[in-house]
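Limitations
The structure tokens in this dataset are predictions for the assembled complex, not deposited experimental models. Users should treat interface geometry with appropriate caution, especially where small molecules or nucleic acid strands are included. An illustrative entry is reproduced here so readers can see what is and is not provided.
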Amino acid sequence: MMDFLASVFGSSNYWFIVVRSTAPILLVTLGAVVTEQAGIKNMALEGSMLWAALTGVLASAWTGSPWIGLAAGIAAGVAIALILGLFALKLDANAVLVGIALNLLSTGGTVFVLFSITGDKGISSSLPSKVLPMVSVPLLRDIPWLGKVLSGQNLVVYLSAAAVVVIHVILNKMTIGRRIRATGENVEAARAAGIDPDRIKFFTLVISGILAGLAGCFLSMGYTSNFTSGISAGRGYVANAAQVVAGGTAVGSIFAALIFGVTDALATFLQSRGLPPELIQALPYAVTILGFVVVTLIRDKREAARKLKLFAGKDDR
Amino acid sequence: MRDGTERRKSPGRLGLFFTNRDALEPALVTLFAAVFSLLAGVGLIFLVSKEPAQSARNFLLGPFLRTYNIYYMMIAMVPLTFTGLALCIIYQSKHMSLIVDSSFYIGAVTATAVGIHAALPAGWHPAAAMLAAGTVGGFIGLLPAILKIRWRANELVSSLMLNYVFYFIGSFIILYFLRDRNQTILSSLPFRKTFLLPRLVPNTQLHAGFLVAAVFVVLVSVFLYRTKWGYEIRMIGANQKFAAYAGLSVPTVILYSHFVSGFLGGVGGAIEMAGLYKAFIWQMNPSYAWDGVIVAMLARKNPKFVPLSAFFLAYMRVGADFMSRRGDVAFEFITLLQGLIILILASDKIVNYFKARRLQRTALARTAEARAAGAGGAE
Amino acid sequence: METILQAVDLCKVYGNGTAANKFVNLTVRRGEILGLVGENGAGKSTLMKVVYGEEAPSSGSLLLDGKPVRFGSSRDAIAAGIGMVHQHFMLVPSLTLAENLVLGREPRKKSGMYDLDRAVRIAEELSAKYNLRIIPWARVVDVSVSMRQKLEILKTLYRGARILILDEPTSVLTPQETDELFAELKALRDKGQTIIFISHKLGEVFQLCDRVTVMRDGAVIGTHDIGDVDRQTISNEMVGREVRLTLDKTPAAPGATALEVRDLSFVDDFGITMVDRVSFSLRKGEVLGVVGVDGNGQSELVRILTGHARTLTGSVRKGEEDLTNAPPRRIRKAGVAHVAEDRMTVGAALPASIADNLLADRYSEPAFTGGGGFLRRSAIQAEAKGIVERFDIRCSSPNQSVASLSGGNMQKVVIGREFTAAADVLVVSQPTRGVDIGAIEFIHRTILSMRDEGKAILLVSSDLGEVLSLSDSLIVMHAGRIVAWFPEASAVTDKELGLYMLGLKTQDEKEIRKVLHA
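Predicted assembly:
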């Protein structure tokens, strides 16, 4: 077993799959980070992904263009996020319950729409949908080993890397980033400064919708080439846990998403070893919970130490 | 001066359930949500169906047009009642765990094991399976609670992920330990005859589980409103800070409320197995917990209303099933309606619309009154 | 002098039905410091929230420069030149002072990006111009309370405020810091700024303001030039009756130590030491008063004693039992009752019934829970009815929800439960805050009769008159420390107390240690 693991972790093929499985999780985790920074929990990321995955397939099949598919998918992802905002922010609904409602109506609703259009409840293979292109990166592809891991991935994989930069810039380099943090940390302070917290929250919801939309499109137009029912497989929920592990930063999201990606890819490899696939499929979800626990444990310890230090730092009587 | 509370009339006929307008108005909104969702459903049917009138008729009236459909509704009420009750308890404590989904599924798996392997007399056999499934379900229910108490993990997020974990574990157990390898389709070994619940009406599938569900409605009502544990659950739901301040052990209450909730889910799963099947043949998790959310919300977290809301949901499901078998509208369209119901009932602004308006009005009137009285006195 | 701001017949009714402002008329003149005084809950803060656009008035109008204005949000009010420094700081802890200063009106680079360097420069310039010293690049979590307040004032000036509203700005300041602030405010006024100063401390109002408006019970009672009025008049207007409390009080007969408190310390989330090695012993049959300017650690001390906050050092013992960092459940079981300061969010469960609230600390006793965990409903009803009658809680039935009661009656639910608890130690926080005048005397008499029964009572109140007339002995807290102990509360004068409360005087260690009764 150890030999096997060593060979897996040494193989560029394995890490190629890691990168590929990490990308969608990374995108949604970034979305969860942004909304959470603004103080609103977007539990509907799962729903955004599902509708985006379906819409992308439908639009690309009808127009023959993966790009229109991508745009339509992203729009669908944003629409779900906006519905969450509408109910949670304008109608005083509990955001988490709204998330539950939207996920419920997305799991069934996507199947309903798929069936109404194709007559099939499980898969969209009867539709001539397009996939987003793979990108072979010049220079990068020539680097031994690393080139095999990082080059030749789907476009969305590179977009997810770009998203990390964009989100980092939004949160740290742009005015809106300060406003997002103010809204999430002390909503009264934001309001007193003339910031409209609802607008900030809507803004972050749109961002999360775009990211989840992108992730959803990747699942049905790259990762696989069809929409299948329940295609997001709980990644939207995973993002909400990974967000905590990420510690509210874009860069932290990479780490958090990798926890999922590494185990998810491992599952693919271990299955071929004849291990029970069911148990292995459970692994990524279990590991995410574990990661959450460990990170919280470390943070609690640090916070306690900080307080003790602040007190001990005071001069003695 | 008399204040608003004294001015309130004694409860009328409706007072049986609703002692005042504070309870009556949300009940009306609940009714509105239910009716509105049905209308939205009809609208949707007209949008997608080639023969909309027929489909709409099948959806709305179908459940009552055939005798067997009435039995189907009663059968469908059973799992909905159990998950609904389970979520009533969770919601009463103001928590949002959906782990009942796992409890129900693993409960069914546990019952399958008992149903296949345990040699027990009829009557005792399903009872033992229920107890085993409930216990396992209860312990599963504890997990998000522990994660919440110890590491402040949002119980909804962790429960949703655990649901995936337990779904895979459940299918693993069925596949590797309980599978009937002589069957081509995925199926467990057949249950023993003693495990199967008796039928209430011959030649229908209506089974004794319906009565068990009724008993559990009473038990959970009593538990929530007549015992000290129920009191504790309601108090941490009403105001968790207050509960801690008054001396309740909030973590303990969170733990056992999740256990009881999981227990109900587990029993529900077991009854589903013993009542409807001859072997475990689920290809995927039926996910009754999500329906339980709606049942609990429609019941306004009160177990005594669960049969009513479970009936409504069963009506929707059977209607949708009946319609989809005879037409071109997929069964899944009801999840859109179900989502709509949650959205409406979760919106405080909608639910409390009348109440807020009334409060505002009386308070303004009272201030003006007081001013007039003050001015009169000065003259 | 010309009028800059005027409120005409302004009413504010909240969604829950409380009328916080009733036909308020207020006039503010350009370039003055107007004091707005009144007791807690008199409606000052609500009025200012309306002026600042945070709350929409239910009726009435607001005139700025003679023209009617209607603010949809504080953004509109800011644009109109109104700035507010809230009682609770409106700051973002993890951002720097400069970032907080420019929040909402941020400088940008040509590229459209946030310009941190310029934010710091702006902070430095403004700080120099108005002589309000801050450290622009420090994070808010890391700076002192008084610097945070200066930052709040600078924030309003940065936004071009002509009218500056300060809500109880001195409650968190030391006396030196207060003097410094007043000098700065007067300088601002002399530069033409209009300032509205909200306070319930008369001394400060006389020290700082040009005119004073008194509010009581949601309405304006009167407005005076400071030169034409004395403190007694204002104080009478504030409370509507003579302030002096007279209570028939027998001398205390303190017994053995009931609660032994040693070396408690607490650091809040901002890293500020709120409680600093506090020790005392509470004896049976005495009322030990704790006084101090709000925010000097009294609330935190109570939270530690009642299990709602953890102490970093030291211990709490009741007889044999170690209650250090014990959960509230164990502390109550050990016989410590607690009237919480925050009655609405901690002291009561508003959606639950009166009976459920009254029984919350005793429902599990055999008298109310029978075998098998079943509640004894008739016994519960009887107990609830008893408390309702004894404490005169006005309701149609004990099964009514607490939320449907009037504010004063909600208070009585909390008081009623705690005063009838099976406890021999009572920690009482602000017992009469928000309680109507008729009930205050009853509460005071009950506290004294419980003392005479031999219970040990720790009384924390920001109402000095109340603490002085009820307490047998007295602790003074300042900056988280006990700075004085007086064995005879009746022998202490307000003046002397003031010096300790403001930290101008500290007893020596030996004197303070006597409160340990060891």
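Some entries come with short summary sentences. For this one: Chain B is about 75% helix and 0% strand.
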